[in-house]
Amino acid sequence: xxxxxxxxxxxxxxxxxxxxxxxxxxxxxxxxxxxxxxxxxxxxxxxxxxxxxxxxxxxxxxxxxxxxxxxxxxxxxxxxxxxxxxxxxxxxxxxxxxxxxxxxxxxxxxxxxxxxxxxxxxxxxxxxxxxxxxxxxxxxxxxxxxxxxxxxxxxxxxxxxxxxxxxxxxxxxxxxxxxxxxxxxxxxxxxxxxxxxxxxxxxxxxxxxxxxxxxxxxxxxxxxxxxxxxxxxxxxxxxxxxxxxxxxxxxxxxxxxxxxxxxxxxxxxxxxxxxx
Length: 276
Known about the structure:
- By secondary structure, this protein is mainly alpha-helical.
- 78% of the residues lie in helices and 0% in strands.
């Protein structure tokens, strides 16, 4: 009886928390379908016959921001950045765990230390170096994301690789595999849960990032967060209807990606971070 009561209380608490987190998204969605003047007057009221705008806000937002172009650049930067992060950090973590010496230990702690350094401490120096090295373009931004995302990714991969038996790698070596074949054919398939978790975390971060693209590539290659800011007019005026519509469009890709991969995230975090 106590266990059933405890489960019921936990369910109700989680239900309330879920409603708290979902409510802001719900408000954005309903306001994206309302006339911009009614959003200010009654932001929490459902649209009716007088306030319903249909797809007008979406059309206006796409035209004003160049959303489709920004969506293409965001997809290009996010997909390639996440792929580069997964490939390089998984190989680095494997090297750190399997090669035990002073250098790899220092390298591991350097990656861990990079996780606690605030971005604001290095953003001006980083933007200057990116400009000098000609990294102020989408391809250069990918390598900058690799640098900032390597700390957490290496940490999670390292924790999971510690649980992988070394005997399967030795067996592959005896069968004639070289080092790269051992990693790609034996080790990397085992890392799938952690790799998907790393992909989800980095995708949500890179897709929604505003400050780093703004500092490095500016207005030449607008990503979605930068494009949304173009809805702000002079003297602080904002087309709230179009902005709400663009926010809805901007969260759809990452939400879909998250739901497709969510079954791996708890397993990946538990095996990569807790045991690490």
